[in-house]
Structures are given as structure tokens and as C-alpha cells.
């Protein structure tokens, strides 16, 4: 009996083992089949080897045709040929074909298609970008009338008043782009303001195997923006003057972009609010380089883990080629804050933007029965006042109470930690509640409620005050008034909670973000009946900076993208325009540091006259690539010529950035920087140091004298630590000052590592 039982048991074990083995083999087979299914891959070939775009495309077919067996097969497989700003192509390939192509000596690297995500009436006045001033950046550039801004986003709504071309002269002669007709969009809708509008959907089509049904997704196969994100960003950067713009009476004023007379070229690459595929983005950037844009604005981003710039990032490579052509690339830093190391778009040739609040807020007054009024924040209530009525606490009610109608006609109060505010509001409305007050953590978003009842949001501190009133009052009552706009004091600037933070997770010695700008509650154009809506995100902060860059590019046409970035960083505010220190929302709130806002809050009043710039060009970017450990062959292909990194490998700490970030300091080191005088000849600057806590700094020379024949000066900074244990980052600054006319400030971020975790 026992032996028989053992035998049966063992036989069952054998059967189970065989079954599991078959399942495992079947899974491997399925994975193998999936790997052989063709997908879109992008093949990067670096710098163009021909000036004629046709020859560039022919060379792409030569490479792909040799793999697939014929030029005809190559034409069927290839979806894009990148032939203007750089060389490369996107094609439908199997994984084995992609691996084989990656071994081709002409190929920099091969990457699979990736989906990236989309990350006003007050902003310009808040930053001092006034059009009526007799001097200044806006005045001196005719509000950017000769600048061309490329917006790579979800398209454009041409009917918005923000894109009227009243008073604009002819389109700049250098413009080579076009407007493309499509569903709901006619090329004739373009004008002297909206000078370009195209769309890119081959990457999208591949995902849906050619069966993307635009109408079902509330989309249009054209440059027409059905999402609103691209229109909002374009009008924030370069919207024309529109009087009495508002959202249902809130934020009323004159809407305008940072560069209100700049020209807009819209490149639609994002669909259905979330689908932005890298092959489409690259083709848009390739065309933008051909078309003649001065600045590219991309409110798009990736999530952690980020792609390495040369070996894996399609986007960073395209941006590199744009910068090498003198086109400044401005990108959103992402909305994954306030956690550290969440910043995206971190390549040193990109200007990466964080988001702040500004001095405009929207408060929803809540008056309790004891005549104490508290102010709800962040949510918008546009409706009739709900007069004094009974105030009840959610936790005091049971499901049966709600079903019995005990909440009907009353205002409901609740604390919310893990439920959606819209969900709880919808529930409350379904039970006859006339208003809801929600105590929740701040999120720094300005958005209307969707439930159709009076609603207000407060933080936990105010929530506890309301709860105390509820629990100590026999018949508690409250009323909720419509949201009101408050401008100026007492609203101090802070880095938004959602704004992604440094340090840079790919190269910690490269400070990111570079700069911050208002990105909370930005009122700008949208394709809806109301015409203007509030949006929040680093997506909204990015076009604020883009417009300022366009003005600066027109004012200083000989400045490189790096010089422009330097001017933004070194002139930035560390206090808001009212003089208050800029805070950073988080847990807990703190004074902002370089990982929150880079150099600080953008200061357009000073940016055109920084005095000195930390410039970078071809050699400095190659220095970075070598210091980051990229192989000579990859760098050579990227540059389009043979290049060998020097030995010993240069230090990333010496990349000529307008910042010094030292992630691993254990012993004394010497860092080098070079500044270029863009101010008066004969200027003399002295060093002013604010050292990070426990860090010793010695600058040599301490004085910089720019004579008639001296345009650039190199200085060194010796850095050592007094800490005897590992520390977190401490922050300071180095400022070159010429007795007040110019204060050229760069942030310092230093972390002591007695024991280095990187071996």
C-alpha cells in the first residue's frame, strides 16, 4: 500500500514536471514568435554625409536594402527617412534584423519605438515682460516678430484668437516649412502668425497596425489639435494679444505669450492625449531643422529609467543635432515630483525647465456658522453660492444613512487620502449633497470640479480647524462661495509639488533642471467653446521659457544655445519678484535649492545682459560625451567624423556649465571653467563665494580683467570638504560681480562621500 502510493505519487510528479516543461517550452516559443514580429525601430547614422536630402535617403535604402534583400523591400519597411537635421531612418523590423543592423559599421545605434508622454493673462506681467515699457527685451525685439518657434506637441487650433496675425509683417524669408491640409484643417487656415502646421502619424499607425480610427478617438488626421495641450503651449510661448481672456470669469485680463509677435510652426506628434511615438517626434524635429525654426519647444518627457543620450535616446540625439545647427531646444523636466532623481530630458545640450507658482491664486471662500471664513485652494468652483446649510462629517455617516437621504441638501466634509476627489464628489452628488469640502494634501493644480456641485479643497491643517468646529458645535453650518481670483501679495512663489526634481539620474554632475518658470494655473488658448482654460505642469512652464529664448535669440543672434542657457541660469531670481525666498513644495516644504529650480526663477529683465556667459560648443559637448564613457566609435558616428577621446578621460566636473555639481567629494579637487565677456570691454569682475556647509572653496584668479584683447578667461575652483562622514548635498553659489552692474551667479551643489557607494 505504501509502495504503491509512492509509485503513483512519483508518476504524478513526472506528469507535472512534463506538463510544466511543455508550458515553459511553449512560453519560450511564444516569446520567440513575438520577438520575430516586426516592430518599429529607429536606426541612427549620426551626422549627414550628403547635403542633398535625396542622396541621404538613397544611402538609407542601401543600408536597409542590403539587409532585407532589395530596395523594394526597403521601401516597404521604411516609414521615415531622417535626412535634414541628421541621418537615420525608422523602419519595421524584427528583433533579429534590428540586432543585425546594429552591427553595421555605419550605424550609431538602433532603438525600438518608444511612447513619450505630454508633460497666460498673468505670467508676462509677473515676470516683468511688459510690452509697454520703452526699453527691455520685448520692446527691443518688436516682441519677437522675426523669431520662429517650433512647437512639437498635439497640434494647433488655428481658429483661436491667440493666433491672429493683426499687425504682423511678411513671414521671415528664411522659412521653408509648410501647412498641410487634413481632416478639419485646411492649409489656408495658416497666416502670418501660424506659418507652419504639419502632422506625423506613421509611428501611431504602426501601433494600431494601420487601423487607427481617428473619429472614435476624438482625433483628426491633420495638424488640428483635439487635445488642447499643443494649442495651450503654443499660445503660452507666442500667443497674440487677446483682451478680456478668462475662464468663466476667472483670471480675466489680456492673454499673450512671452513672445507675442513671434511666428508659430506646429508639428503634431501626439495623439489621443498620451500617444507620442519617437519615430514621429524625430521626423518632426528633422523637418523643423530644415524649415528654419529658431527654437524648438517640446513639452514631452520620459519616465525613470531614462535613456542614455548616445546609446539609447532617439530624442537626445535629434536635440544634439539641432543644437549643433544653432537651434535652442527647450524641454519640460517632467511632473513626477517632489521625489528626488525624477527629472527627465537631462542631456547637457537641452534647456530643462521646472515649474513654479506665481503671485496669482484662486480661493474658494468657505464660511462656517461661527462666521469664520477659511479659503479653499486649488479647486475651482464656478457656480451659485450655496448659502448656510447643515454641515455634516462623512465619517459620522453610515451607508444606510446615505441611502436614507440623511445627507440630502447638506454640505459634506471629508478627509481624503487615497480616493479621487472627483469620485467622492460624484458620490456625494448622487446622494443629494449640495456641496462638498475636501481636506487633502496639496497638489498645486488649478482645475475645476467635474461633479456639478459646489466643491472646495483645503489642506489638512485647515481641515482640522473645520473638524474642530464640527465636533464642538451642536448644529454646525457652512456656506460655499464661488471661487475668486487673488493677484499679488500674500501669494509667494514656490516650486510646484509636481515639478520633477534633480539630481540627474544619468549624470549627477550635470545640474538639472536648468531653470524654472511659472507652470501652475496658466490660462491659455484651447480648442473648446470657452476658448481659454487653466492648465498646470512643466509642460506649461516650458513654453514660457521658449518664448523668452525666442526673444533673446532675436536680440542676440550670434549667441549659441549654450550661451542662451547660461544667461538664463546666471541672471535668474532666487527670490520671487516681491523679494520673498522661493520655497519648494514637498514633504515637508523647504527653501528651494538647485535640484528644485536650477539657477532659479527665469528673469527676462536681465537675461539679455548677463555680463559673462559660460559658453559651450562642439568641443565642450564632446568633452561631456567622453567623460560620460561613451565609446569613440559611437561619438565618431554621432559627429560624422573620426574622433578619439583623450587619455586620461576628461572629468565631467570640467564640462563648462553655468553650475558646479560634485556628487562624490572625498579629497581636494580642482575644477575648471571658462567665461566669455558679452558686456563692455574693460570690465573687471571679482569673485564672491557662498560656500556650501562644510565645504572649502578657493577661486583662482579672484579677479577677471577683460581688456581690449581679452574675450575669454579660464579660472579654477579648488574644492575640499571638512566633513568626516558621508553627507547629503549642501548648496552655495559663486558669483562674479563688476560692482553691481552684473552679478553672474552659478549654483554650487556638493555632496561629501568619504565612503563612495560607486566603486
From TrEMBL:
<dbReference type="InterPro" id="IPR041469">
    <property type="entry name" value="Subtilisin-like_FN3"/>
</dbReference>
<dbReference type="InterPro" id="IPR015500">
    <property type="entry name" value="Peptidase_S8_subtilisin-rel"/>
</dbReference>
<keyword id="KW-0720">Serine protease</keyword>
<feature type="domain" description="Subtilisin-like protease fibronectin type-III">
    <location>
        <begin position="654"/>
        <end position="750"/>
    </location>
</feature>
<dbReference type="InterPro" id="IPR000209">
    <property type="entry name" value="Peptidase_S8/S53_dom"/>
</dbReference>
<keyword id="KW-0732">Signal</keyword>
<dbReference type="GO" id="GO:0004252">
    <property type="term" value="F:serine-type endopeptidase activity"/>
</dbReference>
<dbReference type="InterPro" id="IPR010259">
    <property type="entry name" value="S8pro/Inhibitor_I9"/>
</dbReference>
<feature type="active site" description="Charge relay system">
    <location>
        <position position="539"/>
    </location>
</feature>
<dbReference type="InterPro" id="IPR036852">
    <property type="entry name" value="Peptidase_S8/S53_dom_sf"/>
</dbReference>
<dbReference type="InterPro" id="IPR034197">
    <property type="entry name" value="Peptidases_S8_3"/>
</dbReference>
<dbReference type="InterPro" id="IPR023828">
    <property type="entry name" value="Peptidase_S8_Ser-AS"/>
</dbReference>
<feature type="active site" description="Charge relay system">
    <location>
        <position position="229"/>
    </location>
</feature>
<dbReference type="Pfam" id="PF00082">
    <property type="entry name" value="Peptidase_S8"/>
</dbReference>
<feature type="domain" description="Inhibitor I9">
    <location>
        <begin position="41"/>
        <end position="118"/>
    </location>
</feature>
<protein>
    <submittedName>
        <fullName>Uncharacterized protein</fullName>
    </submittedName>
</protein>
<dbReference type="GO" id="GO:0005576">
    <property type="term" value="C:extracellular region"/>
</dbReference>
<dbReference type="InterPro" id="IPR022398">
    <property type="entry name" value="Peptidase_S8_His-AS"/>
</dbReference>
<dbReference type="Pfam" id="PF17766">
    <property type="entry name" value="fn3_6"/>
</dbReference>
<keyword id="KW-0325">Glycoprotein</keyword>
<dbReference type="GO" id="GO:0006508">
    <property type="term" value="P:proteolysis"/>
</dbReference>
<dbReference type="Pfam" id="PF05922">
    <property type="entry name" value="Inhibitor_I9"/>
</dbReference>
<keyword id="KW-0645">Protease</keyword>
<feature type="active site" description="Charge relay system">
    <location>
        <position position="153"/>
    </location>
</feature>
<dbReference type="InterPro" id="IPR045051">
    <property type="entry name" value="SBT"/>
</dbReference>
<dbReference type="InterPro" id="IPR037045">
    <property type="entry name" value="S8pro/Inhibitor_I9_sf"/>
</dbReference>
<comment type="similarity">
    <text>Belongs to the peptidase S8 family.</text>
</comment>
<keyword id="KW-0378">Hydrolase</keyword>
<feature type="domain" description="Peptidase S8/S53">
    <location>
        <begin position="144"/>
        <end position="575"/>
    </location>
</feature>
Amino acid at each position: 500500500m505504501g509502495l504503491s502510493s509512492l509509485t503513483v505519487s512519483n508518476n504524478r510528479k513526472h506528469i507535472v514536471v512534463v506538463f510544466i516543461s511543455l508550458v515553459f517550452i511553449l512560453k519560450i516559443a511564444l516569446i520567440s514568435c513575438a520577438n520575430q514580429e516586426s516592430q518599429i525601430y529607429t536606426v541612427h547614422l549620426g551626422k549627414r554625409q550628403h547635403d542633398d536630402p535625396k542622396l541621404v535617403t538613397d544611402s538609407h535604402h542601401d543600408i536597409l536594402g542590403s539587409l532585407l534583400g532589395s530596395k523594394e523591400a526597403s521601401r516597404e519597411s521604411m516609414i521615415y527617412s531622417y535626412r535634414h537635421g541628421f541621418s537615420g531612418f525608422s523602419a519595421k523590423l524584427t528583433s533579429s534584423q534590428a540586432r543585425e543592423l546594429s552591427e553595421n559599421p555605419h550605424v550609431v545605434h538602433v532603438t525600438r519605438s518608444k511612447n513619450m508622454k505630454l508633460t497666460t493673462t498673468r505670467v508676462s506681467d509677473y515676470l516683468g515682460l511688459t510690452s509697454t515699457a520703452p526699453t527691455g527685451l520685448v520692446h527691443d525685439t518688436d516682441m519677437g516678430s522675426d523669431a520662429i518657434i517650433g512647437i512639437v506637441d498635439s497640434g494647433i487650433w488655428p481658429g483661436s484668437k491667440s493666433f491672429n496675425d493683426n499687425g504682423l509683417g511678411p513671414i521671415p524669408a528664411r522659412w521653408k516649412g509648410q501647412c498641410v491640409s487634413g481632416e478639419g484643417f485646411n492649409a489656408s487656415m495658416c497666416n502670418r502668425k501660424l506659418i507652419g502646421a504639419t502632422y506625423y502619424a506613421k509611428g501611431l499607425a504602426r501601433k494600431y497596425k494601420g487601423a487607427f480610427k481617428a473619429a472614435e478617438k476624438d482625433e483628426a488626421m491633420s495638424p488640428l489639435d483635439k487635445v488642447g495641450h499643443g494649442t495651450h503651449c503654443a499660445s503660452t510661448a507666442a500667443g497674440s494679444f487677446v483682451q478680456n481672456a478668462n475662464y468663466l470669469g476667472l483670471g480675466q485680463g489680456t492673454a499673450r505669450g512671452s513672445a507675442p509677435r513671434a511666428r508659430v510652426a506646429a508639428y503634431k506628434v501626439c495623439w489621443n492625449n498620451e500617444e507620442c511615438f519617437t519615430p514621429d517626434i524625430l521626423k518632426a524635429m528633422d523637418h523643423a531643422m530644415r524649415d528654419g525654426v529658431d527654437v524648438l519647444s517640446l513639452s514631452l518627457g520620459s519616465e525613470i529609467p531614462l535613456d542614455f543620450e548616445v546609446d539609447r535616446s532617439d530624442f537626445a540625439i535629434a536635440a544634439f543635432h539641432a543644437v549643433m545647427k544653432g537651434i535652442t531646444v527647450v524641454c519640460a523636466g517632467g511632473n513626477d515630483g517632489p521625489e528626488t532623481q525624477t527629472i527627465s530630458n537631462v542631456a547637457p545640450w537641452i534647456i530643462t525647465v521646472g515649474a513654479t507658482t506665481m503671485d496669482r491664486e484662486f480661493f474658494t471662500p468657505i464660511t462656517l456658522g461661527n462666521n469664520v471664513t477659511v479659503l479653499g485652494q486649488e479647486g475651482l468652483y464656478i457656480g451659485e453660492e450655496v448659502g448656510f446649510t447643515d454641515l455634516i462629517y462623512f465619517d459620522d455617516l453610515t451607508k444606510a444613512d446615505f441611502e436614507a437621504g440623511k445627507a440630502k441638501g447638506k454640505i459634506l466634509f471629508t478627509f481624503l487620502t487615497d480616493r479621487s476627489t472627483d469620485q467622492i464628489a460624484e458620490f456625494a452628488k448622487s446622494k443629494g449633497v449640495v456641496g462638498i469640502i475636501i481636506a487633502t494634501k496639496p497638489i498645486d493644480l488649478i482645475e475645476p470640479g467635474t461633479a456639478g456641485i459646489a466643491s472646495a479643497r483645503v489642506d489638512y491643517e485647515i481641515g482640522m480647524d473645520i473638524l474642530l468646529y464640527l465636533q464642538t458645535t451642536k448644529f454646525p453650518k457652512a456656506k460655499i462661495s464661488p471661487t475668486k481670483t487673488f493677484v499679488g501679495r500674500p501669494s509667494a512663489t514656490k516650486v510646484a509639488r509636481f515639478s520633477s526634481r534633480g539630481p540627474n539620474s544619468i549624470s549627477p554632475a550635470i545640474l538639472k533642471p536648468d531653470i524654472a518658470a511659472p507652470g501652475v494655473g496658466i490660462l491659455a488658448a484651447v480648442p473648446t467653446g470657452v476658448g481659454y482654460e487653466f492648465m498646470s505642469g512643466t509642460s506649461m512652464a516650458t513654453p514660457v521659457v521658449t518664448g523668452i529664448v525666442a526673444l533673446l535669440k532675436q536680440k542676440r543672434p550670434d549667441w549659441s544655445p549654450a550661451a542662451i542657457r547660461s544667461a538664463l541660469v546666471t541672471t535668474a531670481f532666487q527670490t520671487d519678484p516681491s523679494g520673498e525666498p522661493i520655497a519648494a513644495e514637498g514633504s515637508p516644504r523647504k527653501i528651494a535649492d538647485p535640484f528644485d529650480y536650477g539657477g532659479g526663477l527665469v528673469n527676462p529683465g536681465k537675461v539679455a545682459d548677463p555680463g559673462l556667459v559660460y559658453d559651450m560648443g562642439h568641443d565642450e559637448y564632446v568633452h561631456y560625451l567622453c567623460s560620460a564613457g561613451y565609446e569613440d566609435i559611437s561619438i565618431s558616428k554621432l559627429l560624422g567624423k573620426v574622433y578619439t577621446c583623450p587619455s586620461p578621460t576628461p572629468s565631467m566636473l570640467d564640462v563648462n556649465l553655468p553650475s558646479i555639481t560634485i556628487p562624490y567629494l572625498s579629497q581636494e579637487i580642482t575644477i575648471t571653467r571658462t567665461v566669455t565677456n558679452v558686456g563692455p570691454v574693460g570690465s573687471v569682475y571679482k569673485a564672491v563665494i557662498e560656500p556650501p556647509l562644510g565645504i572649502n572653496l578657493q577661486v583662482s584668479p579672484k579677479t577677471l580683467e577683460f581688456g581690449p584683447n581679452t574675450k575669454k578667461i579660464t579660472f579654477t575652483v579648488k574644492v575640499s570638504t571638512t566633513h568626516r562622514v558621508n553627507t547629503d548635498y549642501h548648496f552655495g553659489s559663486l558669483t562674479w560681480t563688476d560692482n553691481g552692474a552684473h552679478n553672474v551667479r552659478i549654483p554650487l551643489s556638493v555632496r561629501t562621500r568619504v565612503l563612495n557607494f560607486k566603486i
